Amino acid sequence: MQIPQAPVANLCVDLHAHTTASDGALSPQELVERAAVRGVTHLAVTDHDTTAGVAAAQEAAQQTGLRVIPGVEVSTLWQGREIHLVGLGLRGHPVLEQGLAYQQAQRWERAETIVTRLARNGVAGAEAVIDQRGADAPGRSHFAEWLVAQGAVRDRQQAFKRYLGRQGRAWVRPGWVSLETAVRWVHVAGGRAVLAHPYAYGMTGAWLRRLCEAFAGAGGEAIEVVTGRTTPTQVRDALGLSLRHGLAASCGSDFHAPGTGLEPGHLAPLPVSARPVWDHAPELLAPDGP
Known about the structure:
Strand content: 15-25%
CATH topology of the largest domain: TIM Barrel
Number of strands: 8
CATH architecture of the largest domain: Alpha-Beta Barrel
């Protein structure tokens, strides 16, 4: 069934994108330039467990007509599953800053353990991944790219299957905070909490409904209805979750690198019956910012 889509005059909104501050391939400046060229009017910079790329992106955006929305993508645990939460419209706050510092410490600890476990399985030299990152914590995707470059695996998919995924030889259980804690961090910092890419977790419909109920119960405000990888059927089903659980609808490309998915802003419009998160939180698109 074709879902009517809501026109948004003169707006091109992308509320989920990454830079080199986490696992994106482009610097904050390069991301902003790429998004601006593609007509994006409002871009949320949402790196994993850090806001380190936001200030540089905002500075770069001053030379364009694009507005950068301060954001973050927080890794959390819910019912033993890793769930991601996007925070939008953030303002600096010690609670959020301390929380993200904890998350970064978890990322560094996990990276060091991955290096050790790879070495135990005959793949030495992975400490180079840590060295290359400088002050930015490496993620599993950085190890995957290194494994491919070393010829240890054929591609990223094999890297995760053989080493980095849940059944892999170098798998490390993350120590993320709870979903409820992450929602609280976002709210204390004046932001809006969005459940990221609901169909990326491999859940059944029943589990997704439980997740949305728990997220809404924790004070979450929105769910990503349109993302870089959702099918029309998933858009329809995500819209249903949105309406059923009283969550506003968000949209984001989840852009990481050129050639690996949708370009910034190249998203299908939200369905006409969706309540956009910027209607629920108009400060996200306000000229003077959140």
